[in-house]
Design a protein that fits this description.
10 strands; 4-stranded antiparallel sheet; Rossmann fold; about 35% helix; P-loop_NTPase; ATP-binding; alpha/beta; single chain; 6-stranded mixed sheet
Length: about 250
């Protein structure tokens, strides 16, 4: 894993009126790593991700993604990344094959590339027989796996995943993480938000947000050791208590 940074953020801030949704966060992400962006619902994870994806302009601070500036080059960022939102991001009234072709076309992929890779993807997901069925007919777990596959279909340098395993069963969650490992093995940097603390164990490094601020950033083992915690759930609880005490 390279030590060069593919994402950098310095004092990145987003303010809505009097509310500081993201409050001066700073961190780096290395190429090829699985970087977990953890925190409870409402901690500011999605707001921070939207700024990094070029979908929302920061109020202040600086950030670059794949070498592009979030203020000056948001369109270049969008072309260099994959993105899977926490709400299901494919078109329910299109078929599986039509969804793949639509999203690949947005990124300007050739017909030959789309045809060859679609066949490979359908085989990998065991969806050859369902390729011409509407996406709405798929169970949630399959929808999520398809959405992730489409998000990296154009072979981006980075993929941003916002709560990708929300609402799916434990078996599907494990299968989904196997797909994430495979993508990272191909050199794709994975930036994933989740409120499932056990999923932190699957990441190379994790940051933990509490009330818009990063309260800790380290490897899962490093966080457990420094906070003398037996699990990532305990790590989060200790950090949350610390944040409450410091805010009193």
């Amino acid at each position: 894993m390279s030590t060069d940074n593919i994402i950098t953020a310095s004092n990145l801030t987003k303010i809505f009126g009097a509310f500081r949704a993201v409050d001066g966060i700073s961190f780096d992400v290395h190429p090829g790593e699985i970087f977990g962006f953890l925190g409870a619902n409402g901690a500011g994870k999605t707001t921070a991700m939207r700024m990094l994806c070029g979908l929302s302009m920061p109020s202040s601070g600086n950030a670059t993604v794949a070498g592009f500036d979030v203020y000056k080059e948001p369109e270049k960022i969008k072309r260099s990344i994959g993105y899977m939102s926490q709400k299901f991001s494919l078109y329910e009234d299109l078929t599986i094959r039509e969804n793949i072709r639509f999203y690949a076309g947005i990124y300007g992929k050739s017909n030959a590339f789309i045809k060859e890779k679609t066949a490979r993807l359908l085989k990998q997901l065991h969806l050859e027989q369902e390729a011409d069925k509407l996406v709405r007919s798929l169970p949630l777990g399959w929808k999520q796996k398809l959405a992730f596959s489409v998000a990296i279909f154009h072979e981006p340098r980075i993929v941003f995943l916002d709560e990708p395993t929300g609402g799916v069963d434990p078996v599907t969650r494990r299968e989904f993480w196997n797909m994430i490992y495979a993508a990272a093995g191909e050199g794709i940097t994975v930036f994933v938000t989740t409120h499932y603390m056990d999923e932190a164990e699957y990441c190379n490094r994790v940051s933990i947000m509490v009330d818009g601020k990063i309260e800790a950033l380290d490897t899962p083992a490093g966080l457990k050791q420094s906070l003398q915690a037996a699990s990532m759930d305990e790590v989060f609880l200790k950090l949350a208590r610390k944040a409450v005490r410091s805010g009193d």
